[in-house]
């Protein structure tokens, strides 16, 4: 094996490791954002339900 082939494999391995780390970071960030979005939607649902009930009580 010559040095150029070894360096090519080494660079390829480094690029793959960096890509896996970045993918893990993106997936972790997506998980956090998904959790925040679900919490926000639950709060909006509760507020919408309260407003709907308030409107029903006022009209009766």
Describe what this molecule looks like in 3D.
By secondary structure, the chain is mostly helical. It contains one helix and no strands. The chain has one helix at 3-59. The longest helix is centred in the middle third of the chain and has 57 residues, at 3-59. The relative contact order is 0.06.
Strand proportion, as a percent range, falls in: under 5%
**N- to C-terminal distance:** 87 Å
Instruction: State the helicity in percent bands.
Output: over 70%
Number of helices: 1
The total count of strands amounts to 0
- Report low-confidence residues grouped into runs of 5 or more: none
Q: What structural category arises from helix and sheet content?
A: mainly alpha
Radius of gyration: 26 Å
Order of helices and strands: H
Mean pLDDT, to the nearest integer, reads 95
Shape: rod-shaped
Give a quick account of the main beta sheet: strands, pairing sense, barrel closure.
Answer: none
